[in-house]
Protein: Tumor necrosis factor receptor type 1-associated DEATH domain protein
Amino acid sequence: MNFGHALLLLKAQVQESQRYLSTTLFIELKAYTCRGLSPRPPPAIPAALQQRAVPWPCRSAEAEAAAPRPGGSGCRRVLKMAGSSAPWIGSAYLFLQSTCKTIALPSLYESSQKKPSVFKALKLALADSTGSVNGVDMLKVHCSHPHLIVQLKFCKQENCRRFLQSYREGVLQESLQNHLQLALAMTTVPLEMELKAGNEHLDNMLKDEDRCLECIYREKPDRLRDEEITELEEYLQSLILHQNINNNLPAKDCASLNSPSLPSQGSSPSPQLTFLFQGQQFANRTLTPDDHQKFAKLVSKKWKQVGRSLQRNCRALRDPVIDNLALEYDREGLYEQAYQLLLRFIQSEGKKATIARLIAALEENGLTSLAEELLGLHSHEDS
Structure:
């Protein structure tokens, strides 16, 4: 039985005999243990309870010698020993900014068309920096103009050390610039980088690698991996798989992996990771308030037809819901009728109310221009 287990058992006994034990007695028992002695039985405890008592484990001479003393160096040694048995986990933030005025990384990442490409470049560059695809994890990517901020998690000290060396020597910067150049089909993507851990600017101490490691280790991740990151990684894996088996699949099977077309009558489809529109591949996502506003503003009289396309796998839009919306919001006009239609769809489908499903419904009804607007392929000019 280890020391911690015995302490938990004794605490339970203390709670059971509150009438007899006090905080002072508990401290006294702990003091006895720290000196390597077995504690004496608590005074005036009933015999039945005394029989259930578990003696505190005694420390060996070696353990006593290694025990930290207030203000001594033993405490540091114990912390290092504990760290060696527990997983080494740390966190840092990588700030990225393009020095080219015409390239805004946050805008590229916010674009549903460019996001997968930017993410792929980040993933490959980080893998290059540690020599392993799993050397460093991305927990979230923040868009804070003009910076793209990547929250990183390190699970091994050695991986973190390799990352710091790659960052210090400019290898990471060069790798990311090359991957972005290829992914975005640009001639060059010049970058500036900054690395932070908490309030510490690690660029100022890169020559002191141990200090950098200590700062990163102190900053534990404050979140789990963002759902969007998981979806993008799954998309990359599926894309690689699709490329590997593409030549062995029938054409209709290949198309089914990315097609946004709506299934026939049935339940709501599971959200796809990507879809094709006009020969281009887009990352799928849930509808945003901006999508909602644009749809209501631009769909005009065809809102009913779009609603009937969506109703095939959305029970909330089954007849006579669409006709009732037309009557209920007749005075408010087409904008409100279209707005309420898509609101019903979003409220009913939740995360399954995706841009891919709406684009498919728009294509089905000849609203290609509106689909392009929602995907950011051109800017709509108000009349």
